[in-house]
Amino acid sequence: MGGMGSGGHNSKGRRTVEGQYRLDASDLKRRGLTRNGSVSHLYWKGSDTAPGPSLKVVGGENAITLSYAWRRGDDLWQKHEERVGLHHHARQFGGCETYFLCPKCARTVKRLYGGGVRYLCRTCHGLVHASTQERPGSRATRKNQKLRRRLGVEIGLGDWIGPKPKGMHRKTFEEISARIHAAESEVYDDMLVLLNRMQRTTERRSARIGVRERPKDFWR
Ligand SMILES: [Zn+2]
């Protein structure tokens, strides 16, 4: 899994949950990967330049085993194997919910993330949610609304912001209008950034299960 986790940082440089390849316990169970003795291959699409990681998953009642190749940067590929415990919790109205036991801290978690050589929980990898940091767009939206209130116009984006309120100096009105326009373009810029990110995250999340042949140099 070379290059994994190289992206997915928030504005403060912290790695985000959204930027990592992830395993979801319910998803794996639903797709039959936790079935006792089942052998499946799981792989992610990755980016245009680098393929995503592949995992071999051997199912089991109380644990699954992950096998995969990993390398740091351009180092040689190394084979890794990790046993991940499962916890089944009976639901109130029938059926059961499956959880992973994080291989490092043994916490019961719904998801594990591939933020390094091991698949661990969010806390062990020190991942944060991208949304925990305020987006520039939220700040700009608040600023925009505050300025619009000063002009007594509707809260919104891109609507006409005239006419000048009675008793307000033209210069003040023009200055506030200019600040509204500036704030709005900031909001639009941030929307674009978010849209691009969502698209990349969706591609990354859509892990597939396949019988794809293992690349010849996979374990090298
Ligand atoms: Zn953990």
Ligands bound, unique? zinc ion
Structural class: alpha+beta
Helix-strand string: EHEEEEEEEHHHE
Radius of gyration: 24 Å
Instruction: Supply the number of structural domains.
Output: 2
Largest sheet: number of strands, sense, barrel closure: 7 strands, antiparallel
Which of globular, elongated, flat, extended, rod-shaped describes the shape?
A: elongated
- Share in β-strands: 15-25%
- Spatial strand sequence of the major β-sheet: 7-6-5-4-3-2-9
Topology, number of strands:
9
Count of DSSP H/I helices: 4
Model description:
The chain has 220 residues and is an alpha+beta fold. It folds into two domains: 17-129, no CATH class; 134-197, no CATH class. It is 28% helix and 22% strand. It has four helices and nine strands; from the N terminus they run βαβββββββαααβ. It has a seven-stranded antiparallel beta sheet. α3 packs antiparallel against α4 (170-205). The longest helix is centred in the last third of the chain and has 36 residues, at 170-205. It is elongated and about 80 Å long. The two termini are 12 Å apart. Bound molecules: zinc ion (ZN). Zinc ion is lined by residues 102, 104-105, 107, 120-121, 123-124.
